[in-house]
# Entry
Amino acid sequence: MADTQQQSHDYDYIIVGAGTAGCLLANRLSADPKNKVLLVEAGGRDNYHWIHIPVGYLYCIDNPRTDWCFRTEPDKGLNGRSLIYPRGKTLGGCSSINGMLYIRGQARDYDSWAELTGDDAWRWDNCLPDFVKHEDHHRLDSGGDADAAHRDHHGHGGEWRVEKQRLSWEVLDDFATAAVEAGIPRTRDFNRGDNEGVDYFEVNQRSGWRWNTAKAFLRPACSKRANFTLWHSSQVLKLECQPDENATPRCTGVRLERQGEEVVAHARREVIVCAGAIGSPQLLQLSGIGPVDLLAEHAIPLVKNLPGVGENLQDHLQIRSVYKVKTGSKTLNTMASTWWGKTGIGLEYILKRSGPMSMAPSQLCAFTRSSDEYRHPNIEYHVQPLSLEAFGQPLHTYPAITASVCNLNPTSRGTVRIKSRDPRQAPAIAPNYLSTEEDRRVAADSLRVTRRIAEQPAFAKYEPEEVKPGVEYQSDDDLARLAGDIGTTIFHPVGTTRMGRENDPMAVVDSRLRVRGVKALRVVDAGVMPTITSGNTNSPTLMIAEKAAGWILEEGKGQ
# Structure
């Protein structure tokens, strides 16, 4: 890795944010030795041991060492509650603290993006190669069990490892059978464009360790390249923009704080902002790119009036149903209830890299419909062999499972807006959950689907008792209100710098992710999604970065 103390701070490309997208872009752009690349990360190195042990997400989320520790504004749809809003603050970004679940979404998501942007590059068939390019799927290993369809939809030998989970639970196996009895088909693969079905999640792990994007794309490849520089623990304060000969603003670099001093780094070709759906709109607004009224409120000189910066926030709100099961049932609640149980869990991980310490936050997945009015799966389940009152609180003392369900395609829209000119002050994050009638109806209907699964014969032997929300809540109004009481984010914010057509006044970037009206500036992260994908958002963000890398390199040939 190049000497970070060099006096000349001139680069071809500057990437802001060493998270999911930024790590991949740094790898791809620096692969050409002619490109001098700077990657800037506000967080520190990913050398905290809990990042790498899968269950360590419990100790990374809401921990200032690894998380920005944002909170949402009090939300009317959540009956006035405010939620923690984790965002990764370390190399690897959210891939270092997330659930490690490998889900691409549905083909219709990407076909819709193509319609919204007028660019067929975003169609599913044209996105699939960008998913496959960096994938290393376990079923394509020597001796794997891939069928022809799997080989057509997955890759092998790429940087992004996808593996089976290293444990299973009888109670979850039986819940899956109950889901089948309730009309949800089994599937072997959620990632072929139609994710309807029930099965265990596949995870981004390697041999029982978390596989984050810093491991996948920065080490060892980038660390060996003389043309690559990494500055971690370096806070970008603003983007530097200057008018060109035609009075069009051009992004020329970044101003940042590094080792206690302000430094300006210059970009000859492009600055690429990969700070995520919260950090990217915040940085654009601080730099004078955003809604003119908001910038005037904070006395920030206007560079470009883009009213869509920070608008269109979308997220998946999960509604957790807890079922107490009969005494003697094996769940994590009971396994971890004694000193001996905890010791056994630790030893299994040390010796085999398996067991509960290798667990992703959720194990069993199901995609289905909340009602017959939907032609496609519109809800997703994250099912866990455990229960607790809220994230970070102790497990319940009785055996139980949690079946969390989220609306995949919410119609509610929120905002991200700066509160001051201080880049270290968190922005106001207002998801505006359950603000539409459709979202409230889907919330109520999805709780009924959960009950229908739990009532099936395959699950009857557990004598399930609905502890949360409680069988006394039955009407649409009751269930929608309860969703507001118990719903919480599943950590998938997108859409705040969305792409769109030239005549779309709220589009922040064009279909090639270039910021409208500002030269040499791109945004590449989940914020560019015009609509949220029908599933977890980490892997779609990698696909976006893969596609963007190809465009940037192609355009760079002529410079």
Notes: Residues 1-6 have pLDDT under 50 and may be disordered.
